Amino acid sequence: MDTAEFRRRGKEMVDYVADYLENIEQRPVYPDLEPGYLRSLIPTEAPLEPESYEEIMYDVERVIMPGVTHWHSPNFFAYFPAASSYPAMLADMLCTAIGSIGFSWAASPACTELETVMLDWLGKMLHLPESFIAGTDGHGGGVIQGTASEATLMSLLAARCKAIRRVLETDATTSESEILSKLVAYTSEQFCATLGTTPSCAFDRITELGPFCNKENMWMHIDAAYAGSAFICPEFRPLLNGVEYADSFNFNPHKWLLVNFDCSAMWVKKRADIIGAFKMEPLYLKHENQESGLVTDYRHWQIPLGRRFRSLKMWFVFRMYGLKGMQAHIRKQVALAKEFESLVRADKRFEICAEVVLGLVCFRLKGSNEMNQSLLKRITKSREIHLVPCQLSGRFVLRLAICARSTESRHIQQAWRHITQLAFELLQEQPH
Amino acid sequence: MDTAEFRRRGKEMVDYVADYLENIEQRPVYPDLEPGYLRSLIPTEAPLEPESYEEIMYDVERVIMPGVTHWHSPNFFAYFPAASSYPAMLADMLCTAIGSIGFSWAASPACTELETVMLDWLGKMLHLPESFIAGTDGHGGGVIQGTASEATLMSLLAARCKAIRRVLETDATTSESEILSKLVAYTSEQFCATLGTTPSCAFDRITELGPFCNKENMWMHIDAAYAGSAFICPEFRPLLNGVEYADSFNFNPHKWLLVNFDCSAMWVKKRADIIGAFKMEPLYLKHENQESGLVTDYRHWQIPLGRRFRSLKMWFVFRMYGLKGMQAHIRKQVALAKEFESLVRADKRFEICAEVVLGLVCFRLKGSNEMNQSLLKRITKSREIHLVPCQLSGRFVLRLAICARSTESRHIQQAWRHITQLAFELLQEQPH
């Protein structure tokens, strides 16, 4: 494919993407097929000779689309949202085309520098304490990780490295296995200090945990993967109070802040802590500016060596929405969750199972776990909407998360009508 | 930005990308700026109100491009290649638009199933032993990791988990810290068993290492991050002999197989080994098909929970190039490296420092390390081509890697003329 053909196919793809998203509601949100469906639809080996682009795009509809769970359908209410917006998609095209690998400052200075500044912008939107902001002379700063799991792992490794060093400073003769056997990590059922858990969007009391961690010289990492995006709104910012005690903090703009996956924002108070755990300096990655103190070599902040130019997505989204536009997006989705909550509360057969703070509603039929499992099975089978369950204190609970940017009030009303219709049928069949 | 505007802006972006790549040679390959350049060019905070798309694209040229190291310039010979092709870029647009997160089969069946089959296709292109192929009833199989570092970490964790289990099977009373203190990892200077090291593209003798590892019941992981792509050519496949002894193997199609970053292909002989180390099953990720034995939930194979639909890039590239097209790409780049090698060998002032097996040439001026450092400094400063150095047995060596898809013979000839001109000037200035 030469550049001329790319111009043509690229524009066709833009239209295909626009058509897909514009008409996504017409597709069943959840696929109707059996595991292993795809293998029988395509050859067992790659072709020897090139195939035509038409054949491939034909197969996108024949092979791929029937097997896609449409996360951006307005009827998708499962898990948590996967962020998506047109500005982020445009930035992603640019990121792919530039195709630089930003493991060091020199490998593509713009990639590193825009990332540092975008994490500062975002940190300021969240009113993070000054100590997390890189600025021109700070000791803290931010980085884009792929996912919250990676951010958590990085904080764990940095904490471990710091603890080992502390022991060795006191007694340099301590053996490594002796130190390792003494290290302790405290977690709740949901792992580290969490703001907005996945099952029910619950919040740990970090204003209580924080001072304790600081006093005991323990590393505190706070994960607000989903909820973090909401903290750009002043009315939700109090949920982040206590972050001043944390050593590291992360949340996922790729969940709820309109920046397509992957983009997990992580900040640390002391860059030296995280860099110290991973520094590696082969000659082929050295560059003349690295000792200037002004540059960041992000490979020291993460597990992978390579990294994409992901801050472009943030830059495009932050500028094309503006803070007010992003706040409006969060508020609209919280309002939709509240609307659904009201519908549930108005129906005596149902109950709300956790406080609705942001965009997630946990609810169930008053009755047995089995009955709620049956209800969810019917919902899944109908393929009109898609939900997943959670377990709260031993009870089987349904989760409705506001996910797609295209979800409107009518989808909420429709979803509720659909759920109550299936519940009605189910209850009719129950023995009295 | 609504869908109508996205159609317009998306097509403009396709043209911007095509123009960028078509005219990339006119940009200096390496930026001329000081660390911290970007911060002064943009505001310190995100805007409150939305900005226009025109302003942002204006800033792409004003703020971003001057700070980009152009990895896809035909004059970029640093590090190793970052793969890029138009079919992969089109597939990436589709991947972003679908925007599904494939942590489980149910979260998007097509995402999981295409990945398994694409890793089978690729494994067959490499003539991997049957035990690495998933097929319909195999015990092995492949997965896309983000980078080779992640693949290596996964294999290390799986090996550790397997070793701990083995001890506990013999003596269930052994304490965990006792076991941990006994675990050993053997590595060379370049870490695990490597085919094609980064400094000089050297190859470990895996036909010798392999039987030893198998006999001692040690996990063998082979990393062929760069070189792996070449094994699709029969003439280079012997370099992979011995892979039959490995427990896990990985290489990066995102380096040399035309699939844009990130796409690191990893295979294991026993899926159970890698899954066993990481299985986690909260209720919200369970689905009715997961116990059927037919489905793969890739979240058990990796550090992150979320994952993009990256196999689309492989599918587009494999089909639009065909195996023959991909082989031609590899052969062309190896031939360019050989062409450069001949030029170096024909000049008595220079020497070749490592066998040129694939697309990397390690060379230096006969003389001191200081002289070669000076030569590289002049090359970097001229910004006509971009190289990085390596250290081989204490000697400072220059690396020229064939990277961009657009590099042709004339760029090699031009690069050599440029290097010899700078070397001539340098040698003239030396005291006699």
TrEMBL record, chains A, B:
Gene Ontology MF, one: pyridoxal phosphate binding
Cofactor(s) it depends on: pyridoxal 5'-phosphate
CDD domains: DOPA_deC_like
Top-rank lineage group of the source organism: Eukaryota
Location of N6-(pyridoxal phosphate)lysine modifications: K255
The keyword Lyase appears for this protein: yes
One Gene Ontology term from the biological process aspect of the record: amino acid metabolic process
Record protein name field: Aromatic-L-amino-acid decarboxylase
Highest classification ranks of the organism: Eukaryota, Metazoa, Chordata, Craniata, Vertebrata
